[in-house]
Amino acid sequence: MAKAEQDGIPTVFRFDYRELYTPTQYRSDGIWGHKERMAVFPLLEGNVYSDADLHMPKQPLNADYRIVDTGINIYHLKHINPALRAQRRDLYEHLDPNHKYQSIGYDYLTDETGLALSKIPLSRMYWPLYHEYHMDDAIFETEQI
Fold first, then answer.
1. Ramachandran class of 71: left when φ > 0, alpha when ψ lies in -120 to 50, beta otherwise
2. In terms of Cα–Cα distance, which of 80, 67, 89 is closest to 126?
3. Each residue's pLDDT tens digit, 68-86
């Protein structure tokens, strides 16, 4: 990141996005093995962003940005809990019932056909450790497991 800043080239940093199914395993089959997030970039005057209502890119859309693959994982911990996966599916179905913003729809979020899990290598483990999420009137509480 410091090198990109020194180079003076606007840069977006890409991270592998891992949807966890257990505290130590992420889903890696099909679409799951290709999820990514563009998550770090400079906030510059003249940046152009998507105006889509749902599932829009978070990074600037300017053509002069380069994309650098970080090789770093971002872990989606909330996806571990099957009830929260179903809640996520239901929410997106409610917000996008005609699948305007995601043509494949949202059933894939709970469909375990062809499920393949990959273990997080110890050297790439996250901290702090996972806490179980519970739903209580849309408010999440955590407890150590």
1. left
2. 80
3. 999 999 999 888 999 889 9
